[in-house]
Design brief:
With 826 residues, the chain is an alpha+beta fold. The strands form three sheets. A four-stranded antiparallel sheet has the order 1-2-3-8, with no helix packed on it. Strands 5-4-9-10 form a four-stranded antiparallel sheet. A two-stranded antiparallel ribbon has the order 6-7. Strand 2 (677-693) and strand 3 (696-711) form a beta hairpin. Helix 20 (432-450) runs antiparallel to helix 21 and helix 24 packs parallel to helix 27 (546-556). The radius of gyration is 39 Å and the shape is extended. The protein starts with a helix and ends with a helix.
Length: 826
């Protein structure tokens, strides 16, 4: 539209509004007067609002509403009705032109006169705008202009920038784009030299076989070659410098132009004082823009390295730290750029903390950087800080130095000015509980990597407590659905909760109550009857409150069980729940009656050892040591690898060292996967075996790994361990995926014996050398599991679907080995 067209529209709109207002004031009938007044108020409000976000012309619906209100005001003011005697129109002189040709000639002459004045500059601006926007379309930058298949020139659109610049030589945006094209030419020259050198070193076939690796090598060579090809790049850099100086002159308030000029000057002459001067001007112009803060701090850092004396360098580095801290305060994602730069040039953990503002999002960026650097001890401190910030009532304030900001003018670099960030910056709108949960999960992963198993167990308990708080909202939603009669949907929510928090007594009991409803009974997934949930309730908890016990008994007293096995499990649940609820004598009588049964159902029940285990627990709670020992031994007669009974005997002072050692790995992990299977740990070692080679017996050393798995609950038969031995960069050296077997036969994953420990010893292939591995990443996966069961079993703490533990070879001198017995007793 241009300036002339805009002025015509503004003047015309003003004349129209003034005429409507005069007509409204002249009205006497209330309906027309107040209708027009209300419409005019709406028009004024939209005009006022458009001064702040310019949405009147950019949003079509706003334009329609504006035109409708304006038309309503005009019609209501001008429609026939009662008016005052004074005129409601404007006074103007009219030149009568009766003949139609005369009127047309005058109108065309006026329009032609107004159009001829701005014709040439408007045409030039329009053509240059078309050229430049075609260039933007080719460059892939988002814009409001769309073209049909813009054709690229030989230089990828640079000719379009040149044409736009010829038409408008002082347009700063065109000048900056032309400078960018010149710098692209310099970078292309550098890349060609780096590619030539890479091909000379690696050969011509490497690029075809590994394009990604070749690209990484070229990038590394280009960084090293940059100072050596400065003479060849200089013409491009000088051209870019001249263009950017013109852009800065045309638009001196655009901070990015100053930074681009400083980058070019820094490559031409790193010691030029104008580099820091341009950076300081940019920082003064945009003191809260993260991109400017980062680039300005980067340029000031390059100058600070060479500054003398030391006091001046220290002061400059403090200003750099402040720039980086403010950049991360405004946009924490800049940590991905800032932390590598700080590590390379400033060093030290104290500097990393100095450039990190006291916000949750910024410390999460720091934790990610420390994780990538495998700097575990500072990472644990950082995670503690994240939880502390997430627990605070309000966002922590940003620490700033009062002397970090330079004033512009003649004394740039001497004067200072403190400019605090905007009040809303640095605050994290996310749910604080989710932030704490994320930090707790990563803490579990780090402690597992470090092999601090006892600390990891405490961290897992903390993580599970936070997870239970987070899942309360799901339970509230399930209760709401249940009250509305939507029991199937409520049960589905409970099952999703139990996949992550399998020991949640409220979720278990409510799932059992829903599963006992007659309308739900026939549509239950396998293994989700009310008795099943009550069984999991007792085996996954160490105590029950009286209220929970009473609710569980009411479920058991409901509809009669269908099969003898269900009735058997229900009787066991009654006795075990009584023991956990503190009713030891009642539980003993129920469990003794169950243990004395000789029918086939009781004798073949795969969990028969649990009857004696809970009897022993009841006797132990009553202080009857001898009967508790007898019951634990009876459980071990039924299931010799029932680990809780071995631990119970050890707790009562019985010598079970040999049994405990047989069930204890050298590397103790205790990672629980979905409440169904636990990785107690592993033993990694070497053995010498005789090998017959052409009639000659030789000794060969083979690697073996022994996994210790403890089962708790049924799962889909296809679930199997996935084990990756990785180097320090998490690259997989070899995989040790396998199916759990006992005596050479697949273990019945869908019908395990609760508490049973399966010790599986696997020989590694000769080409698999675990001595090169640093980490073992392990998870439990099923490729064929039906919905809604998860493909990966959930575990408390870790990165993704697997958990990482250190790879430790069996050597008695290692401080983290041989922990199995001690950890079990603990």
């Amino acid at each position: 539209m241009g300036v002339v067209g805009g002025l015509i529209v503004i003047v015309g709109l003003g004349v129209l509004l003034w005429g409507i207002l005069r007509a409204v004031l002249a009205r006497r009938d209330a309906f027309c007067k107040w209708t027009a007044t209300g419409a005019l108020v709406g028009v004024g409000a939209m005009l006022l609002h458009s001064l702040f976000d310019y949405n009147l012309t950019k949003i079509t619906s706003n334009g329609i509403v504006f035109a409708t209100l304006l038309g309503l005001a005009f019609v209501a003011a001008k429609m026939p009705g009662t008016q005052s005697s004074r005129t409601g129109g404007l006074r103007y002189w009219a030149l009568p032109l009766k003949a139609v040709p005369a009127r047309l000639a005058v109108a065309l002459s006026g329009v032609g006169l107004m159009a001829s004045i701005p014709f040439l500059p408007v045409t030039a601006a329009l053509r240059s705008d078309i050229h430049f926007n075609r260039y933007l379309a080719l460059a892939g930058e988002p814009d409001d202009y769309f073209f049909l298949s813009p054709r690229s020139g030989s230089d990828g659109g640079g000719d379009l920038v040149g044409r736009a610049l010829d038409l408008e030589p002082d347009n700063p945006r065109y000048l900056a784009a032309a400078a960018s094209r010149a710098l692209a030419g310099a970078d292309e020259l550098l890349r060609r030299r780096a590619c030539e050198q890479a091909r000379a070193i690696l050969g011509s076939d490497f690029e075809r076989k590994d394009p990604k690796g070749f690209h990484q090598i070229v990038e590394a060579l280009a960084a090293n070659l940059k100072p050596h090809v400065l003479a060849e790049r200089r013409p491009f850099l000088l051209q870019a410098e001249a263009l950017l100086r013109r852009a800065v002159s045309a638009a001196p308030t655009v901070a990015q132009y100053h930074l681009d000029l400083a980058d070019v000057l820094a490559e031409l002459d790193p010691r030029s004082p104008e580099v820091a001067q341009q950076a300081r001007i940019a920082l003064w112009l945009a003191p809260n823009t993260p991109a400017v803060l980062f680039d300005g701090g980067r340029l000031l850092l390059a100058e600070a390295v060479a500054l003398e004396p030391a006091e001046e360098r220290k002061r400059q580095l403090a200003a750099v730290q402040d720039c980086f801290r403010r950049a991360m305060y405004a946009d924490p994602s800049y940590g991905a750029l800032i932390y590598p730069l700080v590590r390379a040039t400033m060093g030290g953990q104290s500097v990393l903390l100095a450039v990190t503002p006291r916000t949750v999002a910024a410390h999460e960026q720091l934790s990610h950087a420390l994780w990538e650097a495998r700097d575990w001890a500072p990472l644990l401190v950082c995670l503690d800080t994240i939880e502390a910030l997430a627990c605070s009532d309000r966002g922590a304030p940003l620490e700033t130095r009062p002397d970090a900001w330079p004033r512009p003018g003649d004394d740039i670099g001497l004067g200072t000015l403190h400019r605090p960030p905007e009040a809303g910056g640095g605050l994290d709108p996310r749910d604080r509980l989710r932030v704490r949960l994320s930090a707790a999960q990563r803490r579990c992963a780090v402690l597992g990597i470090l092999g601090r198993w006892r600390q990891r167990e405490d961290a897992v308990s903390h993580y599970r407590g936070l997870l239970r708080q987070l899942l309360q909202d799901d339970l509230v939603e399930a209760r709401r659905l249940r009250q509305r009669g939507r029991s199937q949907e409520a049960l589905a929510i409970h099952l999703r909760v139990l996949q992550q928090d399998w020991s949640n007594p409220e979720a278990r009991l409510e799932a059992a109550e829903i599963a006992a409803l007659p309308r739900v009974l026939n549509g239950l997934p396998p293994g989700n009857t009310s008795v099943d949930h009550l069984y999991y309730l007792v085996i996954n908890n160490t105590e029950l409150s009286p209220a929970l016990y009473e609710r569980a008994m009411r479920v058991l007293d409901g509809p009669a069980r269908r099969t003898t096995s269900e009735r058997l499990v229900a009787d066991f649940v009654r006795g075990a729940a009584a023991v956990l609820a503190g009713r030891a004598q009642e539980g003993i009588s129920l469990l003794q009656a169950l243990a004395s049964r000789q029918d086939e159902t009781a004798q073949v029940w795969r969990q028969r050892h649990l009857i004696w285990a809970y009897l022993a627990l009841a006797y132990e709670n009553m202080g009857d040591r001898q009967k508790a020992i007898q019951a634990y031994r009876r459980a071990l007669e039924i299931l010799p690898t029932y680990r809780p009974a071995v631990l119970g005997l050890a707790r009562l002072g019985v010598d079970v060292a040999s049994r405990l050692e047989a069930l204890a790995p050298h590397v103790y992990c205790n990672v629980n996967f979905g409440g169904k299977i636990v990785l107690l740990g592993y033993t990694l070692g070497r053995e010498t075996v005789p090998v017959n080679v052409r009639g000659i017996t030789l000794q060969q050393t083979n690697w073996f790994v022994t996994y210790y798995w403890q089962f708790h609950a049924p799962m889909f038969q296809d679930y199997h361990p996935v084990a990756h031995f990785c180097d320090e960069n998490w690259r997989i050296i070899f995989q040790n995926d396998h199916r759990i077997r006992v005596d050479g036969k697949p273990y019945p994953m869908d019908l395990p014996r609760c508490g049973q420990v399966v010790v599986e010893r696997l020989a590694l292939r000769p080409d698999h050398d675990p001595a090169q591995a640093v980490y073992l990443r392990i998870g439990v996966l099923s490729e064929e599991v039906p919905e809604p069961e998860p493909r990966w079993l959930f575990h408390a703490g870790g990165e993704g679907n697997v958990t990482a533990v250190p790879v430790l070879i069996e050597e008695p001198s290692h401080p983290l080995l041989g922990q199995g017995v001690a950890a079990a007793l603990h």
